[in-house]
Design brief:
about 45% strand, Immunoglobulin-like, Porin, 37 strands, four-stranded mixed beta sheet, 14-stranded antiparallel β-barrel
Length: about 625
């Protein structure tokens, strides 16, 4: 039994050491840099929040996994705060910590900034001795979950410019020592500090693409060091792809996407430790993020000794009023005919030096936005002229023409509905059968999957699906997108149910309590004979009905005899007499709703009838 206790204590020593030094080696540090250096808190004008989960060495039982929630934001002009909650698990071990961060930023001239941050946190380590497998127990081994808590502090320093940054951070700069009670033993362990250093640079290849190489160094207490070498490519600050190499690990890769300039998603893959080749499927990491930014106030240039004149403004989306960063603005001097292109900064603001004696046209456009232009004269009484530009996102529409499927003629007044989930777009065709459906909030690259419905009185409704990939903002031609084009088939004429709907028939008259046909009735029956002769495939049922007066059984027998006499009269005068059948219904199917005793003479007369129902 002492051997088992020794093995358990040895495992605890190794495990607690691992927990004490464990910090997530995230592959998203280029994207969530607060995770790499806490001095990033409040460095820009945005509120940032991230949720990350990393499952290491998939395929290895008990391999570590990390989950962390982080958020940071600016307070005032040069300070920031942050919050982190993290959980780490590996085998019998788990660690949970929560930390708050305060950062201070100092401007060095107009282009550089140095930042420092301190994080204070509380940890809770847990060793699951009750999950250890043993084959016997005695009073030397108390299998239970041992926990220990304490406080720690992290330090970060960051130096940034317009396109580069260099950072140094010391996670676990100080920490109280965790201790565990396992059996009769008390074990206390020291937590050694980490050392993280990184450097990166952003190259603007053009207005759409940015290349960012990055190097990260991490010292891992008791386990050497690791370096990341990677490069990332970003498209319009929306889509990012990162590839790199991590020493002692191998290939690392990540992809992220930012939409609506607020929401972020990402996935990363680490090839895994070389020692685990053939055992592990690598490490997988997932990220969800959110940011909310506000534009910083543009500082007015100081008046130099020689007066310079400036034109500034903000480019905004006219619908959302969100500023448009990294947007091309063209300034044309209408006096000289010369033009120059400038780009808005991260707050969507542009600033350009102008000639006070000239007039200008300032315009903004992109593949996704309509061109917006304003003309102005520089005010020589002021060194600064402002011209904001509200730009309109390009809008795609769906067009088509609806025709009669039988005649090919255009159909006016057709209700056209193009829907997807809660999005419903409706239009009506004009006298030429044409229609246009504007589709809102669509952009290049969107995969459109719609349900198309056509409706008009007198026509069978039509439904079809529309699938289209938006490569540009040209109108979507639905006649080409829908197989067979857009047509509606006329509804068929309703078929008559009674011969009385085809010809005028007077009631078939009988003598009182008699089934003998009267001369007037045979005239009407001859009309039925002619219809059957003209329609040799028609089949009918002769149905005879009585009123409710008298005995019900007698009424039933009387109706059957009257149906029989009418049927036999018709059968004797047509070919294929089997086409005619007869049925007596007595008083069971009145046309009126009155109670028998309350029915009037007219009600009884209405119920006494013979019907010729078309069966086929």
């Amino acid at each position: 039994m002492k051997t088992h206790l020794f093995l358990l204590l040895a495992l605890a020593v190794t495990a607690v050491s691992a927990v004490g030094q464990q910090r997530d080696q995230s592959t998203f540090d280029h994207f969530n840099r607060f995770n790499l250096n806490n001095a990033r808190a409040g460095l820009d004008s945005c509120i940032h929040a991230f949720a990350q989960h990393k499952q290491q060495w998939v395929g290895v039982k008990g391999a570590p996994d990390n989950t962390q929630l982080q958020a940071h934001m600016p307070i005032g002009a040069d300070m920031g705060v942050g919050l982190e909650v993290a959980n780490w698990r590996a085998g019998l071990l788990s660690a949970t910590n929560i930390a708050g961060t305060f950062a201070k930023h100092f401007d060095i001239g107009s282009k550089y900034r140095i930042s420092g941050a301190l994080s204070l946190g509380y940890y809770q380590y847990s060793f699951g001795a009750d999950d250890a497998v043993v084959f016997d127990r005695d009073n030397y081994l108390d299998q239970s979950r041992a926990t220990s808590g304490g406080v720690y502090g992290d330090l970060g320093v960051l130096f940034t410019g317009e396109q580069f940054e260099v950072g140094l951070s010391v996670p676990s700069l100080f920490s109280t020592a965790p201790s565990f009670d396992i059996g009769s033993e008390v074990n206390e362990y020291n937590v050694e500090p980490y050392l993280n250093a990184h450097a990166s640079y952003a190259y603007d290849l053009n207005s759409d693409f940015q290349l960012s190489p990055m190097v990260i160094y991490r010292s891992i207490p008791g386990n050497g060091s690791v370096m990341d070498f990677k490069a990332g490519m970003r498209y319009r600050n929306m889509l990012g792809v990162n590839l790199g190499y991590r020493t002692r690990n191998g290939l690392i890769a990540a992809v992220d996407y930012t939409f609506m300039d607020r929401y972020k998603i990402g996935y990363a893959y680490d090839a895994g430790l070389t020692q685990l080749n053939g055992i592990s499927n690598g490490s997988h990491e997932f990220l969800l993020g959110f940011q909310l930014c506000k534009a910083k106030r543009q500082k007015q240039p100081k008046e130099p000794e020689v007066v310079d004149y400036y034109l500034s403004g903000t480019v905004r989306d006219d619908k959302t009023q969100q500023p448009m960063p990294d947007f091309n603005v063209v300034l044309k001097n209408t006096t000289t005919g010369t033009s120059k292109t400038i780009q808005t900064d991260s707050t969507g603001t542009y600033l350009v030096k102008v000639d006070s004696s000239a007039s200008y046209e300032v315009s903004a456009a992109s593949p996704d936005y309509e061109r917006t232009a304003k003309t102005l004269n520089v005010n020589p009484a002021s060194t600064s002229t402002t011209q904001n530009l509200d730009i309109t996102h390009k809008q795609v529409s769906a067009q088509g023409q609806v025709r009669d499927a039988k005649t090919g003629q255009p159909l006016e007044g057709v209700v056209v509905t193009l829907s997807r989930g809660e999005e419903v777009n409706t239009a009506m065709t004009d006298e030429t059968g044409r229609f246009t459906l504007p589709l809102k909030d669509k952009k290049r690259g969107d995969q459109l999957n719609y349900s198309l419905q056509l409706r008009r009185d007198g026509y069978e409704p039509s439904s079809s699906s529309v699938q289209h990939t938006m490569n540009n903002y040209d109108p979507i031609q639905l006649n080409k997108a829908v197989e067979g084009g857009l047509t509606l088939a006329p509804k068929p004429e309703p078929k008559p149910e009674q011969i009385s709907e085809i010809i005028d028939l007077e009631p078939i008259r009988f003598e009182v309590n008699s089934a003998k046909l009267t001369p007037a009735s045979t005239v009407e029956l001859d009309k039925v004979v002619k219809v059957l002769t003209d329609n040799p495939d028609m089949q009918i049922e002769v149905g005879a009905h009585t009123d409710c007066t008298g005995n019900a059984d007698g009424n039933q027998r009387l109706s059957e005899k009257r149906a029989q006499s009418s049927m036999e009269y018709i059968q004797s005068r047509i070919e294929n007499p089997e086409r005619v059948t007869g049925q007596g219904y007595g008083e069971s199917r009145p046309l009126t709703t009155c109670e028998c005793g309350d029915c009037t003479k007219a009600d009884h007369e209405l119920n006494r009838r013979t019907e010729f129902r078309i069966v086929e």
